[in-house]
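Regression test case RT-17, inverse folding.

Input:
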């Protein structure tokens, strides 16, 4: 492991390289512990660069075993090589030259899973962001683009399959039981998009004919025997390829597109050119083992990586500060894809739930940073929900401000103007300014200012003037390193509704630009006057969540109930139901803290039950309506002095009151929303299952809870219902015979399937209350748990720390201490994984004082440990600051 050097990288220091890389020719002679890598690199000095400047290449834990200059041995005094750099002096002022660099690496010993490593008996690579430098010395930065030839030599019996980027050139025997294959990728690419896979895998194959009539071979490689479980991923891939042609006019550009599923992977998946590598969790699915959420994730991630071919690969980032250029945009594109394939409002609700539960806390805590940051210590720590999800929201706002057509024009300008380049956010935004004629300077603050803006709104109606005045005020909270914030350009989708639920169209609007139902808030304070309003309106603001803000607007339960029933935007209906439920949950948490009885306000329960029973609404929407804000949503709303036990107890009491009142509705839904006939993972069927599961949750609060849930568990013919019944049993009645029996049946049925066992781990890691920690500890001793596998660690340790506030946050601080020890242990093998899981501590300051003190002590224990990785040091220091 490389430990921290404390070095900070600044955007302001960016400058282009002194040398231009023309071509890359790599040869790998694969061996589990001694892989020989030969890199032939052709460079020339950039015009105008210092004629004396040395060429400095990046390395990480490398050792040089040979260096040739134009095929001749390089004299020792002409270079210096260390584990993390190779500097070469006295190079030609203008002529191209060739360096041949030899290194020997040990894939078997690579536990960081960056660079070339072994997983499940195969060789695979992960190079984003800075993994290529663990393979060979290289200008390992995204603005160095070149075409690559890759030759792979390996033992034939163990590695019948030899894959790399681009198109296959040919292969042959190589003597001594070895064979070789050559690949050529004609599209200039940065090193982070390099990939190599070798081993013995099964495959499913298909083809796709592009819009210009070219046939592309599609291959998905998985472990032998798992081929049938890749069928849904293939289907999702073909739909993604078609959609990108239709929605963005983007055609695929090689003869072959490959996906390889591996079982050890730090992230979800990786968009390497023509050879995507996936965490197998996001490829493998069948009805017996995958939930509807798994299917939806697979569809979204297959699409996401495929879409990167244009937004990320053909046009890439100039430097890693521009990460959101490819990630925010590509998340936006995969969201749009899923919205078109599924239900748009339901997808939007899920996106916003995710944004609020993951990104809003990041933006409100010590790890807050702008979508386009200006400094970092460890780039791995910037693959954040702010860069990805808020980055997507910023792209969405551009589309909202400009309108669909103009947004599309801007995207066309982007693709035409920058194809083949490594660019910046400024380049991206300029395309939309040029396409629209609009100045986006103020809007660009969304990239530069961290923190979730708070918009406070209040309306007043004047019956004689027939006007409705809406006063708006915005405030962007201070975040680390940014105290003074400027007002942002906030697009607020807005509509008015009359007492009868009909929409009221204003005759004109003064005081703010208002086009296409979008009101532009640009000042710190601003009052919009809407004319021609014949009766007192109910206002709906930030419909479809047009801007990622917190909105304060006092509305009566009656007005919210009206929106919940009559808003034409179903996202806004869900928002109204949430706004109705939230005060109950907040009050319940406070009352529980003070040991008071908990009583709910009834309008909100009635509105919820009305939506649940409304057959004109799609089941998936009704299920979302029934899913109350989570415990972490509640603690975020409370903001400070949080007691997880009180929040939990309060929420349980509210659930119970809803269940008592809605028992007839829930019984009906549970009986009716069955999965008829053959299983289908489509969104409509998934919606029925979601609603049935929601009903089962509430029914667990009335009579016969364990028996009913156990019956549902036994009868389930798909993983979505089975896992949900198991969760209800384990979370609500952990000591019951039913729960114990179901947990052991589930384990025995799926003992061979690690991805399902991960679900079994996660269900137990999230059992509320202080006993969860001992359970997690015991499960870590299980032979089914593997410390070296990121999915296992995330399923058990990660899920416990991120999503079990009462278990992880138990009052004696044992959960925090446990995490500290685990982080230090994981950090020895896999710093990226350790740092990621440590971010679960980011909201420690909002805990009540005793827990906050215990959390601080655990963080301090990590901070003071010797030999931390840069990844963990960076997170722990920022979290404590
Ligand atoms: N670029 C990948 C994606 O978003 C994520 C990733 C980052 C994977 C770093 C591996 C390492 O699709
Ligand atoms: Zn991505």
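Golden output:
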């Amino acid at each position: 492991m490389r430990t921290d050097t404390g070095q900070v990288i600044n955007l302001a220091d960016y400058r282009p390289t002194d040398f231009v890389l023309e071509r890359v020719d790599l040869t790998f002679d694969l061996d589990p512990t001694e892989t020989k890598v030969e890199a032939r690199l052709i460079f020339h000095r950039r015009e105008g660069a210092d004629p004396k400047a040395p060429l400095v290449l990046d390395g990480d834990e490398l050792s040089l075993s040979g260096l040739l200059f134009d095929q001749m041995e390089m004299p020792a005094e002409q270079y210096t090589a260390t584990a993390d750099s190779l500097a070469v002096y006295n190079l030609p002022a203008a002529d191209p030259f060739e360096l041949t660099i030899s290194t020997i690496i040990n894939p078997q010993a690579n536990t960081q899973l960056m660079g070339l490593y072994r997983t499940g008996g195969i060789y695979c690579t992960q190079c984003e962001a800075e993994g290529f430098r663990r393979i060979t010395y290289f200008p390992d930065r995204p603005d160095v683009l070149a075409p690559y030839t890759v030759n792979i030599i390996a033992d034939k019996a163990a590695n019948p399959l030899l894959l790399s980027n681009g198109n296959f050139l040919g292969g042959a025997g190589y003597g001594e039981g070895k064979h070789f294959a050559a690949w050529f990728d004609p599209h200039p690419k940065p090193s982070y998009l390099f990939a190599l896979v070798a081993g013995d895998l099964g495959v499913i194959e298909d083809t796709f004919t592009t819009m210009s009539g070219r046939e592309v071979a599609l291959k998905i490689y998985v472990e032998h025997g798992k081929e049938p479980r890749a069928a849904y991923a293939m289907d999702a891939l073909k739909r993604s390829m078609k959609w990108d042609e239709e929605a963005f006019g983007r055609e695929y550009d090689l003869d072959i597109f490959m996906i390889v599923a591996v079982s050890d992977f730090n992230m979800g998946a990786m968009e390497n050119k023509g050879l995507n590598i996936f965490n197998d969790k996001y490829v493998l699915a069948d009805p017996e083992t995958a939930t509807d959420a798994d299917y939806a994730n697979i569809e979204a991630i297959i699409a996401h990586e495929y879409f990167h071919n244009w937004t990320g690969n053909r046009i890439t980032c100039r430097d890693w500060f521009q990460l959101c250029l490819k990630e925010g945009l590509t998340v936006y594109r995969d969201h749009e894809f899923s919205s078109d394939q599924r239900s748009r409002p339901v997808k939007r609700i899920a996106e916003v739930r995710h944004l609020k539960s993951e990104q809003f806390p990041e933006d409100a805590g010590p790890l807050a940073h702008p979508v386009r940051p200006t400094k970092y210590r460890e780039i791995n720590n910037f693959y954040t929900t702010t860069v990805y999800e808020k980055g997507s929201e910023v792209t969405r706002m551009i589309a909202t401000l400009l309108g669909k057509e103009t947004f599309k024009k801007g995207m066309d300008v982007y693709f035409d103007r920058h194809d083949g380049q490594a660019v910046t956010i400024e380049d991206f935004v300029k395309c939309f300014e040029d396409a629209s004629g609009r100045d986006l300077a103020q809007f660009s603050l969304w990239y530069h200012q961290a923190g979730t803006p708070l918009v406070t709104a209040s309306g007043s109606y004047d019956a004689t003037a027939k006007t409705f005045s809406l006063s708006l005020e915005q405030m962007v909270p201070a975040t680390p390193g940014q105290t003074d914030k400027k007002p942002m350009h906030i697009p607020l989708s807005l509509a008015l509704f009359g007492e009868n639920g009909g929409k009221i169209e204003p005759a004109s609007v003064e005081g703010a630009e208002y086009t296409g139902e979008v009101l532009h808030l640009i000042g710190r304070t601003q009052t919009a006057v809407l004319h021609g309003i014949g009766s007192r309106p109910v206002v709906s603001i930030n419909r479809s969540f047009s801007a990622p803000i917190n909105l304060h607007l006092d509305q009566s339960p009656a007005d919210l109930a009206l929106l919940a029933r009559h808003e034409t935007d179903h996202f806004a209906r869900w928002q109204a139901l949430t706004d109705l439920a939230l005060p109950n949950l907040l009050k319940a948490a406070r009352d529980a803290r003070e040991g008071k009885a908990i009583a709910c306000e009834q309008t909100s329960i009635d509105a919820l039950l009305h939506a649940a029973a409304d057959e004109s609404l799609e089941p998936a929407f009704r299920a979302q309506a029934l899913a109350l804000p989570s415990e972490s949503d509640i603690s975020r709303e409370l903001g400070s002095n949080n007691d997880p036990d009180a929040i939990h107890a309060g929420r349980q009491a509210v659930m119970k009151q809803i269940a008592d009142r809605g028992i007839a509705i829930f019984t009906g839904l549970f009986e009716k929303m069955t999965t008829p006939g053959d299983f289908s993972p489509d969104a409509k069927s998934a919606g029925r299952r979601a609603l049935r599961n929601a009903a089962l949750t509430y029914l667990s609060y009335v009579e016969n809870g364990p028996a009913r849930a156990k019956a549902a568990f036994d009868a389930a013919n798909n993983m979505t219902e089975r896992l949900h019944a198991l969760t209800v049993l384990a979370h609500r009645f952990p000591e019951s015979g039913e729960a114990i029996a179901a947990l052991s049946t589930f384990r025995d049925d799926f003992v061979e399937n690690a991805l399902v066992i991960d679900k079994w781990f996660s269900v137990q890691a999230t059992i509320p209350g202080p006993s969860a920690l001992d359970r997690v500890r015991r499960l870590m001793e299980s032979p089914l748990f593997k410390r070296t596998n990121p999915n296992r660690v995330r399923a058990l340790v990660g899920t416990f720390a991120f999503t079990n506030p009462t278990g992880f946050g138990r009052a004696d601080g044992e959960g925090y201490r446990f995490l500290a020890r685990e982080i230090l242990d994981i950090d020895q093998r896999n710093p990226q994984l350790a740092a990621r899981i440590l971010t679960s501590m980011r909201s420690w300051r909002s805990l009540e004082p005793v827990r906050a003190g215990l959390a601080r002590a655990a963080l301090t224990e990590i901070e003071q440990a010797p030999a931390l990785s840069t990844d963990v040091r960076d997170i722990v220091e920022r979290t404590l600051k």
